[in-house]
Amino acid sequence: MVELMVIVTWLLFLAVVYYNIFVIIPEAVILGVYPYVLGITAILAIGLLILRFLENPSFIRIVYVVLGISCIFIGFTLIQIWRNANLLNHYQENRSHYIDHLMRITREREYESTQLEPEEEGIATLIQANTGIPLTSYNRATLISESKKIFDEMIEAIDQAEKSIHIGFFIVRDDHIGGKFKEILKKKAEDGLEVRLIYDGKGSHRLSKRFITDLKKAGVEVFAYDSIGTSILKGKLNHSNHRKMVIIDGKVAFTGGINLGDEYLGRDKAIGNWEDICIRVEGEGAHWIQKVFLADWYYATEEKLLDEVYFSPIQVEEVLPMQVVTSGYDTHWNEISQVYFSMITAAKESVYIATPYLILSDSMLKALETTALRGVEVNIVLPKKPDFFIVGWANASFFEKLLKSKAKVYQYDDGFLHAKAVLVDDKILSVGSANLNTRSLHLDYELNVMIYDEILCKKMKEEFKIYMQNSVEVTLEDYKNPPIAQRVKELIGRLIIPLT
Description:
Distance between the termini: 35 Å
Largest sheet: 15 strands, mixed
CATH class of the largest domain: Alpha Beta
Protein name: Cardiolipin synthase
Structural class: alpha/beta
Oligomer: single chain
CATH architecture of the largest domain: 2-Layer Sandwich
Strand content: 15-25%
Enzyme class: transferase
EC number: 2.7.8.-
CATH topology of the largest domain: Endonuclease, Chain A
Transmembrane segments: 7-25, 31-51, 63-82
Radius of gyration: 23 Å
Number of helices: 17
Domain PLD phosphodiesterase: 237-264, 413-440
Strand order of the largest sheet: 4-3-2-5-6-8-1-9-16-15-14-10-11-12-17
């Protein structure tokens, strides 16, 4: 028995090493199984160490029982992962039917004079084909780049709410800014408004019970999007809801990269200044962000909210072509990954990318290399000091290939750059929650807003210029004779790719 365990442990360990060093396979089943394989390997290794050094027969029997129970549990979990990856849990099917009902409540007005260029039209068509979300025309939008201003505008909008407040964050913390949100949400709920909050159970695992209890006592409906235990049982340990949404009366919506915590205000001394980007939306785009929230609410609660009260009449007359795009590991399409790939490969003049995590699949790396080699200006900005040092090593493992293709890489040196934005030819802009990494593009549920407007695109380009001015450019010279330590760090960094 022990010899069999030794063989299985070594096989699993070698499979993990081979996967990380030689292949990056963005398949739902493989990425879903990965953290469990690591866990199984650790459990077997610990069991072997115990059996090797302890001779107490009773204790050894206990170890065998624990390992046996673990194997049964792991088998059940692997079945769940397979069911999720093959859409056998019926959630996506039910969600689609629910979205169909929501679409009957609101209908976008057509604006015949909106003429998108072929590249823009192609991306808009792609998004509608793989998500069912159409291009909208009657919108008003503002980019907000200062974290304090982002929170201030959210709180001001919440304070002016008349009917409903819907909030979804990957991370919610019981700290200064979390407390401010808690108090205003309690007040609005006590005033009779419908207030709902979703948080990701893994991203917000440190959120105190007192925080949740206080909100519930005031009448706020609070639910976690899969706790850690639920995620393990559902086979979703490697999947999270990474979306960020604040929707007021179905009229005003905010989305972007920012979560609800003091570190986003630069109050974490280890991180320092926090640079992020958020977009405020009014009009038809806000309706679609509301629909995304309601679909997430349905997942967390199995409650379908089908009332026109959640969608205020559109009063925006300005024309701003905009489209919401969502993605998740269990849709098979990797929608935002397709959008990023299409944007990069369609570029004629320039590509600007801001992302804190640069973990590239083979296809995405090839798209960036090919685009740069054909003469398009490719600029990638990411933090010099990441929030977790091994992530920085993983990011750096892609620099040499990008630099050889003449892409430019900048490391932001004025704090932590958390913005997630892709700008192409000063005409197409994507802003939202999705990073350019394995987790965002193949594992988590994400939400981005596509903007087809030169004025907003130029404003975003000004933000990119500020990012680059506060960055250190990485050059190919830095990689001509890199120290052995640097190569080792990059190799270690690649070991965590399936988890980032």
